[in-house]
Amino acid sequence: MRRMRGAALVAVAMTGVLTLASCAKDSGGDTSTGGGDGPCVTAADPPKVSSSQSRSREQEDVDASDLRVGLAYDVGGRGDASYNDAAAAGVDRAKAQLGVKDTTESTAAGKESEDAKRQRLNQMAQQGYDPIIAVGFAYADAVKAIAPKYPRTRFAIVDDDSVDAPNVTALVFAEEQGSFLAGVAAVYKSQNCHIGFVGGVDTPLIAKFEAGYVQGARAVSDKVTIERDYLTPAGDISGFNDPGKGNVVAKSQIDRGADVLYHAAGASGRGVFEAAKAEGVLAIGVDSDQYRQKTVAHVKDVIMTSMLKRVDVAVYDYIKAVARDDLSSLPERFDLAVEGVGYATSGGKIDDIEPILRAYKKQIVDGDIEVATTVAN
């Protein structure tokens, strides 16, 4: 597996391999919908299924106007066009549909201390906010330290289930399942049979995105080449908020021949999209439907789809469950079966292959395909 190696990788990105770059531009630069069975696909198409219907969500009169909701963002905060914006959308929906009136938000800095995270949560609890939602696994230690001090305050943490406390709810996802479908889509749309993955921070969580993507790609092609790089090592969460570095790494992958890039890098994904735009290749967004995000509107024409991680749904459902005083309605994990992950169709670039994606989705939901959470190299 490739990992970013400082100056060496930057040098590659700066100089490039011009022949491969030209190949990527010439054969993979068409940002139209392209053909269905691309030159990379070696597996037979799975049996078609009827159009999937979204799970009907319970419509009931829930009044959350008495709740005071605290939202502690991960690095990048509201406006990252990805993970944090999805959480923000969940709270915004709770305001509009459940009557939540009093909210507060605070954002983590790139390299802040554990004390800073604890102070953020502690301040919200002291001010009487309940529930408090910590957006991201980086808050695990802080939630573990603060939640016991406020046993009557309800806490939720996104992307971590390590905190064992009666007043803490884990909101976790099957990122690998949605990423599997992204890998399938990438192969069907690649003209070079060469795709890429850009992870923000090298952690087990982001490795789930990589694992699903690689497995999905290899499920439909036995000849695909997959570039894989991380922007920062574990412990340095700046990889989620460095579009410049995202651009450099994406450009390097394109120079090596990749013509479809999937990022799981938060706000750094903007740099991936900009590199794809400049080089005339396609990209896959993450978390939110990034084709519709205003902060990346200038590059939306290269976004062929996004792997939807419905943090917005999880946050909204959690607030609704708290308002009802019944957390038992929440799923153990937000997966494909409960529409907790999925893919976006905005822009029409995957319309021709959506029947194939639906078929693979059904196989995963039915248990015919088990998606791994770690990469088998």
In short, what is this structure?
37% of the residues lie in helices and 16% in strands.
Order of helical and strand elements: HHEHEHEHEEHEHEHEHEEHEH
Approximately what portion of the residues adopt beta-strand conformation? Answer: 15-25%
Instruction: Provide the gyration radius in Å.
Output: 20 Å
Q: Treating each run of at least 4 consecutive H or I residues as one helix, how many helices?
A: 11
Oligomer: single chain
Major sheet: size, sense and barrel closure? 6 strands, mixed
Instruction: State the total count of DSSP E strands.
Output: 11
Residue-averaged pLDDT, rounded?
88
- The helix-and-strand class reads alpha/beta
Q: What's the level 1 CATH class of the largest domain?
A: Alpha Beta
Number of domains: 2
Give, in spatial order, the strands making up the sheet with the most strands. 7-6-8-9-10-11
CATH architectural label of the largest domain: 3-Layer(aba) Sandwich
